[in-house]
Amino acid sequence: MNSLCSDVKVVCLFSISRTGSNYLANVLRNLPEVDVYAEIFHPEQAFSVSEETCRFINDRHKTGARDLSKPDDAEFSSWIRSHPKETVLALVDFARLAGKKAVYLKIFNDHLIGVKEGLEALATIPGFTPVILQRRCVDSFISFRKAKITKSYVQNRTTGVKPALNVDQYMRWRQPRLDWYSLVYSVMSKKGLKVHQVTYEDDIDIGNEACAIHWRDLLKSWVGAAEHESELNTDAGFDATLVDEQSLIGRQDDSATEDKIANWDEFYEALKNAGLAREAMSYLSFK
To answer: Per its UniProt entry, which superkingdom is the organism in (predicted)?
Structure first.
């Protein structure tokens, strides 16, 4: 079947690490008509891609993979990161064959090879819905620093890790992420796409069941009401109460922000002196 048919929608979350996107992906897996992929374009390997999906992509494209069913094949990973549109269209066809109505994936700032060209190509996919996710800067930054220290990014409790941070570290963290969000917004807007914006605080960290219901309704509002061959019925087979029984990851640090690091007063004063305190306590402004 022709991939250019838009009966299967694509919802792409553009974000950065430490924003709750893994938790969100786990929640969305409770929607039976949505194929959910996590970091398929991760530099290390195509995470969350099954061997069956991997082989499906390799059957359609000459990726150079030595093992056609292994998502950690280096050549396969390099090819899909350089060909995001072709990869996503293959996922659309794979979802269609399985009777799915939507594909969900996420892309971070270090995922694509040829970033601008990749974004421009993705924006031409019929039914493509871009979503930008942010978390309050200071919390995302602190979580990132803790992950770097512990060398663990998933299922890692860091409440007891309290590093001393400085404004130079924050500025080095900030700039590439600001550039990323700015580029995504610019490319998608110029292609005529509406860029939806969500936050960790308002749209994810609201409780498992509430989050599941909220995102079911968001997906329906974004892609279910458009004029497509078939609408997304996100109510089918969905029971939000089951979400609490999944092995979902909640907050990795239960402390208040000012208690997450060893030198909050000093760090916050340095942010104020650099004119960054207001932004740090809110979100990056990229429009």
So the answer is: Bacteria
Query: Is the pLDDT assigned to residue 50 strictly greater than 70?
Result: yes
Which CATH architecture fits 9-135+174-250?
3-Layer(aba) Sandwich (3.40)
Report helix angle 21-28 to 208-219, nearest 10: 70
Note the helical H segments in the chain: 21-28, 51-60, 74-82, 84-97, 115-122, 137-150, 167-190, 200-203, 208-219, 264-273, 277-280
pTM, two decimals, is 0.91
Identity of the amino acid at 215: W
Average pLDDT over residues 160-170: 95
Angle of helix 264-273 versus helix 167-190 axis, rounded to 10? 60
**Band (245; pLDDT cuts 50, 70, 90):** very low
Mean residue pLDDT of the chain comes to 89
Residue 99 burial (CB count, 10 A): 9
Distance from C-alpha of 27 to C-alpha of 156, rounded to nearest angstrom: 18
Task: Return d(Cα 119, Cα 132) in angstroms, integer.
Answer: 13
Model confidence at 27, pLDDT cuts 50, 70, 90, reads very high
* Confidence at residue 135, expressed as pLDDT on a 0 to 100 scale: 97
Each domain of the chain, given as residue ranges in start order, spans: 9-135+174-250
Contact assessment for residue 19 and residue 134, using Cβ atoms and an 8 Å cutoff: yes
Contacts (Cβ under 8 Å, ≥6 apart) of 141? 18, 165, 169, 170, 173, 174, 280
- Residue where the block lists tokens 């700032």: 109
